[in-house]
Amino acid sequence: MIRHVVLFTWTDDATDEQKAAVPAALEKLPAAIPQIRAYTFGPDAGINQGNHDFAVVADFDNLDDYVIYRDDAVHQAVIAEHIKPILASRAAVQLSL
Amino acid sequence: MIRHVVLFTWTDDATDEQKAAVPAALEKLPAAIPQIRAYTFGPDAGINQGNHDFAVVADFDNLDDYVIYRDDAVHQAVIAEHIKPILASRAAVQLSL
């Protein structure tokens, strides 16, 4: 299994509407990309200081399926339209489990 | 459910032995901390450039159980003895799912 983990921080001037548009767009991806086996995402719960703002954890059967997701046009459109305009920083790891 | 996600980068002078000691120590935590429901971790798979070096994804039934894990003495010892000595940067999010 490949578990893709990515954390984002948003720019200071990102609006609540822009932030809310990210999960609204992401939740459409499992229906669009059948290679996704499990997909969890959301804003930081606010428990600890100094955290990033948003996380995505996506599971795939294998590396090929992850790459299909990574390069998928619908996924790339979400990144271009909703994530990049408010992205301050990004941290990612792919785990081979 | 609370899903705790944390990514690390290691210092340039971290040795292979020091890096290998992190998963070796983490794999003992589920037996020591029964609040852990699922625990996945490991080094970045090397698929993409610019990634962080290591990830942990830990699932808990609720916030209280996550806080028990966060503050657990055995967990804190792993952080102090194995993670902090080679830590360059850390990014974390807790998801409420």
TrEMBL record, chains A, B:
Pfam families: Dabb. Homodimer. InterPro entries: Dabb, Dimeric_a/b-barrel, HS1/DABB1-like. Gene3D superfamilies: 3.30.70.100. It comes from Nonomuraea rhodomycinica. SUPFAM superfamilies: Dimeric alpha+beta barrel. Residues 2-95 form the Stress-response A/B barrel domain. This is Dabb family protein.
